[in-house]
Amino acid sequence: MSNESDDPDPNAEDARAERLVAYLDGEMDDESSRRIEAELASDAGLRQQLGALEQTWEALDELDRCEVDERFTQTTLEMVALAAEEDVERVVKESPRRSRRRWLLGGIGLAAAAVAGFTAALLLWPNPNRQLLKDLPVLEHFEHYRLIDDVDFLKELQQQELFPEKTDGQ
Amino acid sequence: MLEVREDNAGAFEELMLRYQNRLVTVIEHLVGDRDQAEDLAQEVFLRVYRSRKSYTPGAKFSTWLFTIANNAASNALRSRNRRREVSLAGRESGPLGASPLEAIVQASSGQMPARQLDKAEMRDIVHLALGSLGERQRLAVLLSKFEEMSYADIAEAMELSPQAIKSLLSRARVNLRDVLAPYLERGEMPSRASEE
């Protein structure tokens, strides 16, 4: 890396240019900077290359810097304000629809939960009235049944369908 | 930007006033047309506003802004190139028009060693030298020169690695040197456009 004319390797030239540019851009760590500064001190060709790169970089200062006028600022702000208005309108328009959908889904969920809960309670909770309902026909005719002492006789009467109502299991 | 994110309209205006000239400058040198640069800058500000909620606190605003600008300008250049391919099939042209360096050489009186480095001419030559770079090299140069962005920030804005930016900027500066050195050293008009 001493003299560029002794080094025709394009990759080596690219690497050297990269180092010089990184040095000019302040993108080198201290150790690398010290190393390239030592090379520059002893290599006139490298110094010349650095000078040319620096000179062309400074030439870019000649490029125009734009100054926009008030019309640009105003129209841009108007465009943004319009976009903001559209945003608000969309939110307002979508809000009741979203809300309705949310309530509907919530309602369906709630109803499903209620049905499931009721079914579970029905299956799991022992109903104290169930036995009373089952015995109701017997209780209704209890006065008649009491006149007959023999249960077998009662069963025989039932088989002959002499009772007006059927009783479950009786 | 955090206040813009929270829908503070005054903060957006302030941000725009701070960046509008810088943004239009970079885009104009990128697309080579002032009117288109202003249109694109407006589009960029509109995109900034629309995506304000996705801005990450702590991120550098200028890097975010130029990432959006890079995408907008790239899209514009791509569609312009497509249109040009259709209308001028077979003709080669750079981003600033057909063979800009050759055009200025033709317009001038050839080699002029004793010529004074007129400021306007110098500006035109530098402008055309920049235009002779590829799109990516040009953007990296503009962000480095005008925005004084670090390699890491340029890499983020251009969605490349810092190492890629290092190589890109190095090649760009060598290309600029090759085009400008004859003019700067001996007053010779550039004879060819460099390529990326």
Would you list the SSEs of chain A in sequence order as H and E? HHHHHHH
- Most extensive chain-chain interface: A-B, 32 and 46 residues
| N-end to C-end Cα span of chain A | 115 Å
From the structure provided, what is the oligomeric state, counting identical versus distinct chains?
Answer: heterodimer
Number of helices of chain B: 9
Please tally the β strands of chain B and state the result.
0
Count the domains of chain A: 3
Q: What share of the residues of chain A does DSSP label as strand, in percent?
A: under 5%
Radius of gyration of chain B: 19 Å
Structural class of chain A: mainly alpha
Biggest sheet layout of chain A: none
Low-confidence stretches of chain B: 90-94, 109-114
Percentage of residues in helical conformation of chain B: 55-70%
Helices, strands, pairings?
The complex is a heterodimer of chains A (170) and B (196).
Chain A: H1 10-24, H2 30-42, H3 44-59, H4 70-124, H5 128-140, H6 142-145, H7 151-159
Helix pairs in contact in A: 1-3, 2-3
Chain B: H1 2-5, H2 9-31, H3 34-50, H4 61-87, H5 100-107, H6 119-131, H7 135-145, H8 151-158, H9 162-186
Helix pairs in contact in B: 2-3, 2-4, 3-4, 4-8, 6-9, 7-9, 8-9
Task: Tell me about this structure.
The complex is a heterodimer of chains A (170) and B (196). By secondary structure, chain A is mostly helical. Chain A folds into 3 domains: 4-62, no CATH class; 69-125; 128-159, no CATH class. Chain A has helices at residues 10-24, 30-42, 44-59, 70-124, 128-140, 142-145, 151-159. Chain A is elongated. With 196 residues, chain B is mainly alpha-helical. Chain B folds into 2 domains: 2-87, RNA polymerase sigma factor, region 2, helix turn helix motif (Rna Polymerase Sigma Factor, Chain: A, Orthogonal Bundle); 100-186, Winged helix-like DNA-binding domain superfamily/Winged helix DNA-binding domain (Arc Repressor Mutant, subunit A), CATH 1.10.10. Chain B has helices at 2-5, 9-31, 34-50, 61-87, 100-107, 119-131, 135-145, 151-158, 162-186. In chain B, helix 2 packs antiparallel against helix 3 (34-50), helix 2 packs across helix 4 (61-87) and helix 3 (34-50) packs across helix 4 (61-87). The relative contact order of chain B is 0.12. Chain A binds chain B through residues 14, 17-18, 20-22, 25, 27, 52-53, 55-57, 59-60, 62-68, 72-73, 75-77, 79-81, 83-84, and chain B through 7, 9, 12-13, 16-17, 20-21, 24-25, 28-29, 34, 37-38, 41-42, 45-46, 49-50, 119, 122-123, 126-127, 129-130, 141, 144-146, 150-151, 166-167, 169-171, 173-174, 176-177, 180-181, 184.
